[in-house]
Amino acid sequence: MRSFTFALLLAAPFLAGTAQAQQPLRTAVDGTFAPHAFPKLDGGVQGFNVDLFTAVAKKMGRPITIDSASFSGLVPALNAGRYDFLAAPVTVTPERAENLLFTEGYLYTEYQFGIRKGTAPITSLDDVRGKAIAVNKGSAYDAWAQANAAKYGFTVQTFDSQPDAVQAVIAGRVFATLGGNTTIRYAATRAPLLVPDFTIKETRAHWAAPFRKDNAELRKSVENALECLKKDGTVAALSEKWFGVKPGPEDAENVVFPGYGVPGLPGYDPTEHTPDCG
User: Fold this and answer.
1) What whole-number distance in Å separates Cα of residue 182 and Cα of residue 108?
2) What predicted TM-score, i.e. pTM, was given to this entire model?
3) Environment class of 17 (CB within 10 Å of its CB; exposed 0-12, middle 13-18, buried 19+)
4) Residue 62 host element (H or E)
5) Domain formed by 109-203, architecture
6) Of 212, 226, 227, 8, nearest to 96 (Cα)?
7) Domain boundaries along the sequence of the chain
8) Which tens digit of pLDDT belongs to each residue from 112-166?
9) For 25-52, how does the pLDDT look when each residue is reduced to its tens digit (9 = 90+)?
10) CATH 3.40.190.10: does it fit domain 2-106+209-254?
């Protein structure tokens, strides 16, 4: 009996570690944000972020559950402990980084114009002077366009959805549409007459996974897996699959950033490390 008890005591740390390794990672996405996450015809969600964090969990040796919820409720649910982190793309801003821990960016988000096929490419914002620009009403792109219309001399037309703005470009009712780079590229894979064009570089930011401030170790584990998936080409392949454009060597899909988190922002840990991809 004593030897049996001793054996169990010796095995306890291993069993506890095994149980922990098998605990599902709990996360969520905004299930209406194609192509990052959107409904499948047979139920559930699909998209770049679903595939990416399924691959992250596999690399970590953990199962994962991915809920679909409204974006506005995701951070409160994370802070309440319902989720371990968020798989939804979240733009890393100084304000958010004060309250959450982030991984390094796995994508860059930046504002991009989409134009009709055959239209001369936009080479600078001077090229939109005197033109009409279509935006999704109430979006961040709508806000930027309204704030900058007078400065750059264009007019703004608002639409109830980004697909409606795209159709206005294709129909020739406006010169271009302005949206997020991934949504513009995805729209071009569905509408061959739309061409992804000029990006506004000063709007570039990291899209990354947020964690609670008290969960630094899980942040490190998830970032390690992300870095391994960058190194083996998985992140770039998923990006090309969902957004229709092969990422360049300097795009976030291919860059392993130093330390943990987004360099230069609150919550960044500059500890040097080499990702363990065994």
Assistant:
1) 9
2) 0.84
3) exposed
4) none
5) 3-Layer(aba) Sandwich (3.40)
6) 212
7) 2-106+209-254, 109-203
8) 999 999 999 999 999 999 999 999 998 889 999 999 999 999 999 999 988 999 9
9) 999 999 989 999 999 998 899 999 999 9
10) yes
